[in-house]
C-alpha cells in the first residue's frame, strides 16, 4: 500500500501556551536580549533525521517559528528522511511550511552494522561545511539515533552549543550508549521525566542546565481533537473497520541481537495472522537488520494479506488518531511505551528494545517473546481494553518551557562544559526561573455536604483549594467534579505545580482497583455503581485513584501524620459518621469485598439505637455527629438542652456542637450523652485492639479531642493487659480527607517500579 500525502501540521497555539506567554515577563525577555546583544536573535539549527524524531522536534520548531523577534530557525534534514524506501518523509516537513536549508544524504545502504558506522562517518564528513555556512548559536539534537551522534559530535567539535532533547532515559540496545554519549557532548538538556532528570544529575551534568519539560510531542497529543478520526481510520485500514477493532504494529530490529529480533518479528506476524484482526503494519526503521525484517514481511505475504495494510510512513497527526482509537498496539517502538499512554490504548511491548523505559499501566511487557503462543496470549489479554490515560512523559506544556529555556541562554557564558561531580546536591534541577516545579496531586473530597478539590504538594501543603456544595444528582455531581478538576489543573501551571494524577476520597464502599463506588452511604445520594476513574481520566489525561474516605484518612496519617513510619496502626474518623482505616505491615487493608475497616459499624450493644446502616447498637449510632445531633434535638424538644450561658436563635438548627457546649457549661444530661458516646467508641476501639493489635490508634475528625480521654479510660478498664500499652492520639492533620486523596497519587506515582 502506498503512502498518502501528509496532513498539514498547524502551529501550536492557544491553550496552555497562551497562559505561558501571558505570564512570561517581557522585562525578563528584554534583559536576555540585551545580554546577548541588543538586536541579536538566537540562531537555532534544528536537525531531523527520521519520522520519529520529527514528531518530537516539530512542536519546538513551530514554537520557534512563531517568535521571529527572538529566534532565527534553520532546518537541516538528513538520514532516512531522504530515502524512498522509508517514505521520503522530508516532504511532511515541507508541507508543514518549514524551509529546509540543507538536505544531506548520509545513509549508506546495507542495513547492517557496518552500514550504520559508515553512515555516521559520511555525516561527519558532510556536516562541517553546513555548520560553517549556518553558524548557529545553538543546535537542537533529539534522542539516541546514530545520526544524532554524528550531529552532536560535529557541533561539539565546532564549538556550537548543543541542546539535547530526551536525554537521561533508559532503554535497551545500543541506543542507551548513544543517548548517554550525546548527553556528555551536550551543553543543555531537556528531559521528559523525573527519573530521566535524576539520571542526568547522576551523570554529573550541571543542574542549572537541565530542564524537566516533558515530551514535546505530548503538546500535540493532549490537544489532538479530531472529530473526523473515522475517515483517517478508513483511509489506512479500509471502509469496514470500527474503532477499537484493529491493531497497529510497529517493530524495529534490535541492533545488539539482530538474529533474535528478526525471529521475534516472524513470531509476531504469525500471532497477528492467527489473531485475525485488521492490522496496520509500519515498516521498520533504517537500523541494521531492517532489510531482513522486510524480507520476513514479504515472505509471509503481509503486503497482500486481506487483514493487513503495510505502509512505510503515516503522518504524525494521523498516526496519533490511529493509535488513539486502536484496539491495541504491538511491537517494540518507543512510541508504544511513551506517546500511546496518553490515550490509554493497550500496548504489547515485545523484547528488550525498551527495557528500562518508564511505562503506564496500559503496557504489557513480553520480554522473552520466544513463541507464537506467548504473543497470541498477550493479544488476547490486551486487545480491546481501555486504560486510564497516562501523563508520565508530559503534561502538554513542554514547548513553552523549552522556549523559555532557550531565551535564558547567555551566549557570553563560557562554552566549556562544567560537570558536577559527586556528591550530588539533594536539590534537583530547576526550570528557567530557578523555581522547582512541585510534584503535586489533585485531591478530591466528596463529603455529605461539600465537594472539595485541592492542589496538594509532595510535602502535604495544600497549595490551592476549591469548595462547592455537593450536588444531589449523579449527573450534576460528576459535571461539577470535572469542572473543578479542570480549573485546578489549569491553575497548577500558574502556581508552578506538576500534577501527577487525581486522588478521590468518597464515602461508601469503593473498589479501588477499578475506581468504582460500589455502594454509598445515605449521606450521598445517587452514588452507587459509579465509575469515577474513566470519565475523569479521559477528561484530564491523568491517572485516577479512588478510595473510601476512612481509608484515605489512614493514608494521610501514614504519609503526613502520626502514622509515618509506623508498621501497624488504626485511624478512626469521628465526624458526621464514623469511619476509619487499618494499616497492617505498612499496607492498607481493603478486604475481600472492599468492606474492611467499616469501623463505625462495629456493634457495641445488642439493643442500642438504630444506625443508618439498618442495624442497631453500632458505634456510629452512639458517637457520630448525626447521633449527637439526634440526642441534642431530643433534649431541646424537652427544653432540657439550654443552660445558663447558652442561647439559640429561633431559626438556628440544633447540632452536636450545642450538645458539647451544654455539657461544658454543666448540663448533666448532655454530659451523660457524651460519656455514653465516648464509652461506645472506646468499646469499639477495644474490639479493634483485640482483633488487629495495632501499636497506635489515631482519632481524627472534629469530635476526636472530645473522645480521646474517654477512649483511653475504656481501654484501661476493658482491654486485655497485653494491648493496654497502645498509644491513642488525636490527629494533627487539618484536612485528612484531602491529604489522603493526594497520598493515593503521590505514594503510587513515586514508588512505582516497572
Strand residue percentage: 15-25%
What is the percent of helical residues? 25-40%
Structural class: alpha/beta
Q: Determine the mean pLDDT.
A: 87
How would you write the strand order of the largest sheet? 3-2-1-4-5-6-7
What is the fold's blueprint, element by element?
Blueprint: H1 16-23, H2 26-35, E1 42-48, H3 51-65, E2 71-78, H4 90-95, E3 100-104, H5 113-134, E4 138-142, H6 146-157, E5 161-165, H7 175-185, E6 188-191, H8 194-202, E7 210-212, H9 216-221, H10 229-237, E8 246-250, H11 258-275, E9 278-282, H12 290-299, E10 308-311, H13 316-324, E11 328-331, H14 334-337, E12 347-350, E13 363-366, H15 372-382, H16 398-407, E14 438-446, E15 450-457, E16 462-469, H17 474-494, E17 497-506, E18 509-511, E19 516-519, E20 530-531, H18 533-540, E21 544-548, H19 549-560, E22 569-574, E23 578-584, E24 587-588, H20 619-623, H21 625-637, H22 656-664, H23 668-692, E25 696-700, H24 704-718, E26 727-730, H25 736-751
Parallel strand pairs: 1-2, 1-4, 2-3, 4-5, 5-6, 6-7, 8-9, 8-11, 9-10, 11-12, 12-13, 14-17, 17-21, 22-25, 25-26
Antiparallel strand pairs: 14-15, 15-16, 18-19, 19-20, 22-23, 23-24
Characterise this structure:
Helices cover 39% and strands 18% of the residues. It is an alpha/beta fold and 754 residues long. The strands form five sheets. A seven-stranded parallel β-sheet has the order 3-2-1-4-5-6-7, with helices on both faces. Helix 11 runs parallel beside helix 12 (290-299).
Keywords:
7-stranded parallel β-sheet; alpha/beta; ATP-binding; 6-stranded parallel β-sheet; metal ion binding; 754 residues; 39% helix; disordered N terminus
Amino acid at each position: 500500500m502506498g503512502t498518502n500525502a501528509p496532513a498539514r501540521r498547524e502551529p501550536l497555539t492557544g491553550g496552555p501556551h497562551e497562559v505561558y506567554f501571558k505570564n512570561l515577563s517581557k522585562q525578563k525577555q528584554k534583559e536576555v536580549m540585551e545580554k546577548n546583544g541588543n538586536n541579536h536573535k538566537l540562531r537555532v539549527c534544528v536537525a531531523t533525521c527520521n519520522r520519529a524524531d520529527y514528531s518530537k522536534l516539530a512542536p519546538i520548531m513551530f514554537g520557534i517559528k512563531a517568535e521571529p523577534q527572538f529566534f532565527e530557525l534553520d532546518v537541516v534534514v538528513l538520514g532516512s528522511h531522504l530515502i524512498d524506501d522509508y517514505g521520503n518523509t522530508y516532504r511532511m516537513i515541507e508541507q508543514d511550511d518549514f524551509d529546509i536549508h540543507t538536505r544531506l544524504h548520509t545513509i549508506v545502504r546495507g542495513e547492517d552494522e557496518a552500514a550504520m558506522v559508515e553512515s555516521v562517518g559520511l555525516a561527519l564528513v558532510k556536516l562541517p561545511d553546513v555548520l560553517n555556512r549556518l553558524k548557529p548559536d545553538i543546535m537542537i539534537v533529539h534522542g539516541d539515533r546514530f545520526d544524532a551522534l554524528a550531529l552532536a559530535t560535529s557541533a561539539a567539535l565546532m564549538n556550537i552549543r548543543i541542546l539535547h532533547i530526551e536525554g537521561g532515559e533508559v532503554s535497551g540496545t545500543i541506543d542507551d550508549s548513544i543517548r548517554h554519549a550525546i548527553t556528555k557532548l551536550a551543553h543543555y538538556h531537556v528531559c521528559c521525566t523525573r527519573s530521566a532528570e535524576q539520571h542526568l544529575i547522576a551523570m554529573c551534568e550541571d543542574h542549572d542546565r537541565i530542564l524537566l519539560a516533558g515530551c514535546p510531542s505530548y503538546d500535540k497529543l493532549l490537544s489532538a481533537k479530531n472529530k473526523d478520526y473515522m475517515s483517517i481510520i478508513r483511509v489506512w485500514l479500509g471502509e469496514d473497520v470500527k474503532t477499537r477493532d484493529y491493531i497497529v504494529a510497529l517493530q524495529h530490529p534490535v541492533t545488539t541481537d539482530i538474529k533474535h529480533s528478526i525471529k521475534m518479528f516472524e513470531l509476531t506476524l504469525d500471532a497477528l495472522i492467527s489473531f485475525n484482526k485488521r492490522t496496520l503494519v509500519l515498516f521498520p526503521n533504517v537500523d541494521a537488520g531492517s532489510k531482513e525484517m522486510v524480507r520476513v514481511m514479504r515472505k509471509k505475504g503481509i503486503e497482500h494479506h486481506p487483514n493487513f495494510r503495510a505502509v512505510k510512513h503515516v503522518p504524525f497527526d494521523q498516526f496519533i488518531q490511529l493509535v488513539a482509537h486502536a484496539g491495541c498496539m504491538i511491537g517494540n517502538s518507543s512510541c508504544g511505551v511513551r506517546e500511546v499512554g496518553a490515550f490509554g490504548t493497550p500496548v504489547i511491548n515485545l523484547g528488550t528494545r525498551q527495557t528500562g523505559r518508564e511505562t503506564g499501566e496500559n503496557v504489557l511487557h513480553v520480554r522473552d517473546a520466544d513463541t507464537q503462543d506467548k504473543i497470541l496470549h498477550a493479544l488476547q489479554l490486551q486487545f480491546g481494553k481501555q486504560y486510564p490515560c497516562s501523563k508520565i512523559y508530559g503534561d502538554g506544556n513542554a514547548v513553552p518551557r523549552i522556549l523559555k529555556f532557550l531565551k535564558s541562554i547567555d551566549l557570553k557564558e563560557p562554552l566549556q562544559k562544567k560537570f558536577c561531580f559527586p556528591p550530588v546536591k539533594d536539590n534537583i534541577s530547576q526550570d528557567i526561573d530557578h523555581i522547582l516545579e512541585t510534584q503535586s496531586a489533585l485531591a478530591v473530597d466528596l463529603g455529605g455536604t461539600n465537594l472539595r478539590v485541592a492542589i496538594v504538594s509532595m510535602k502535604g501543603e495544600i497549595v490551592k483549594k476549591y469548595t462547592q456544595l455537593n450536588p444531589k444528582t449523579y449527573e450534576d455531581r460528576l459535571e461539577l467534579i470535572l469542572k473543578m478538576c479542570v480549573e485546578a489543573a489549569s491553575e497548577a501551571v500558574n502556581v508552578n505545580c506538576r500534577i501527577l494524577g487525581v486522588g478521590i476520597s468518597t464515602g461508601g464502599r469503593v473498589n479501588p482497583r477499578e475506581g468504582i463506588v460500589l455502594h454509598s452511604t445515605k449521606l450521598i445520594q445517587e452514588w452507587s455503581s459509579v465509575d469515577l476513574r474513566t470519565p475523569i481520566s479521559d477528561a484530564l489525561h491523568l491517572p485516577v485513584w479512588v478510595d473510601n474516605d476512612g481509608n484515605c484518612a489512614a493514608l494521610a496519617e501514614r504519609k503526613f501524620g502520626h502514622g509515618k513510619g509506623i508498621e501497624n496502626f488504626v485511624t478512626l474518623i469521628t465526624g458526621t459518621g464514623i469511619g476509619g482505616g487499618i494499616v497492617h505491615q505498612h499496607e492498607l487493608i481493603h478486604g475481600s469485598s472492599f468492606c474492611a475497616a467499616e469501623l463505625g459499624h462495629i456493634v457495641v450493644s445488642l439493643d442500642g439505637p438504630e444506625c443508618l446502616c439498618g442495624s442497631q447498637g453500632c458505634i456510629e449510632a452512639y458517637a457520630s455527629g448525626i447521633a449527637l445531633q439526634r440526642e441534642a434535638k431530643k433534649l431541646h424538644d424537652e427544653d432540657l438542652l439550654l443552660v445558663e450561658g447558652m442561647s439559640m436563635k429561633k431559626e438556628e438548627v440544633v447540632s452536636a456542637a450545642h450538645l458539647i457546649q451544654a455539657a461544658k457549661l454543666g448540663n448533666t444530661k448532655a454530659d451523660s450523652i457524651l460519656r455514653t458516646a465516648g464509652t461506645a467508641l472506646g468499646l469499639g476501639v477495644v474490639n479493634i485492639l483485640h482483633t488487629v493489635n495495632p501499636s497506635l490508634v489515631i482519632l481524627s475528625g472534629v469530635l476526636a479531642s472530645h473522645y480521646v480521654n474517654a477512649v483511653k479510660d475504656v481501654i484501661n478498664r476493658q482491654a486485655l493487659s497485653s494491648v493496654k500499652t497502645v498509644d491513642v492520639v488525636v490527629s494533627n492533620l487539618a484536612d485528612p480527607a484531602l491529604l489522603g486523596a493526594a497520598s493515593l497519587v503521590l505514594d503510587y506515582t513515586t514508588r512505582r517500579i516497572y
